[in-house]
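Field log, afternoon session.

UNIT: design team B
ACTIVITY: writing a sequence onto a fixed backbone
BACKBONE:
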């Protein structure tokens, strides 16, 4: 999977696929026309680009995802922490909490997640 990044419009397009898959490329073109005001050629160009990135596939006219929206979001989050905080989750949390305090409920939820994630 080459580039796990989407622009704003690409994200809206990807959401159309994730919310409606599996769907035919013809259905996708109609949805894109309605939601994004795109021509068929624009839909196919962007679809090809996202297929080349390994996010979706167009197999004989049926469009499906190769990774779920949740997996995609997780990959983006991991890349952000890797690129911005040298992969350090504590450094990310420190930066995040320095500007936005978390509630007691969020703290408890994070503790539970950490306990679940421990080896």
């Amino acid at each position: 999977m080459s580039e796990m990044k989407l622009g704003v419009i690409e994200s809206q397009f990807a959401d159309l696929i994730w919310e409606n898959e599996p769907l035919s490329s013809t259905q996708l073109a109609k949805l894109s026309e309605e939601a994004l005001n795109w021509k068929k050629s624009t839909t196919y160009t962007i679809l090809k680009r996202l297929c080349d990135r390994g996010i979706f596939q167009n197999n004989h006219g049926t469009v499906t995802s190769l990774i779920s929206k949740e997996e995609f979001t997780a990959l983006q989050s991991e890349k952000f922490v890797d690129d911005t905080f040298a992969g350090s989750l504590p450094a990310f949390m420190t930066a995040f909490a320095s500007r936005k305090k978390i509630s007691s409920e969020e703290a408890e939820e994070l503790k539970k997640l950490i306990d679940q994630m421990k080896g």
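LOG NOTE: The radius of gyration is 18 Å.
NEXT ACTIVITY: expression trials, pending approval
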